Amino acid sequence: MGDRNIEALQDAALSYAEVRDQRMNLGRQEVELKSKLLDLMHAHNKESYVFGNVSITIVHEEENVKVKVRSDEPEQDEEEVDDGIPDAPDQTEVVQ
Q1: Distances from the Cα of 16 to the Cαs of 2, 8, 67, 74, 86, in angstroms?
Q2: Are 13 and 21 in contact (CB under 8 A)?
């Protein structure tokens, strides 16, 4: 037999599950978009692409792409966000 309903626990669990499911869906979308980007780079015979504030580089250790998008605004101190993923050695985010 289960516990009796504790509304705060029930609400917190449902909120957590909703955000977790959103994150998982974003991960799937990221993988699909990365694959599309690699396919486009190959289709255009590009190892790297730089235009405006976008820079894309194919990383060959394990086929990968690096994407940088710089703001058009004057540089400000960047806020560092810990996403739990170690930074690449050159501090450039590596999309995997």
Answers
A1: 20, 12, 30, 37, 24
A2: no
- CB hemisphere CA count around 51 (13 angstroms): 2
Tell me phi and psi for residue 74, to 5 degrees.
-55, 145
Render pLDDT for 65-88 as a digit per residue (tens, 0 to 9). Answer: 788 888 877 655 444 444 544 454
Instruction: Grade residue 59 by pLDDT with cuts at 50, 70 and 90.
Output: confident
Tens of pLDDT, residue by residue over 3-31, are: 899 999 999 999 999 999 999 999 999 99
Measured in degrees and rounded to the nearest 5, phi and psi for residue 23 equal -60, -45
92 three-state secondary structure: coil
Residues contacting residue 88 through CB under 8 Å, at least 6 positions apart: 66, 94
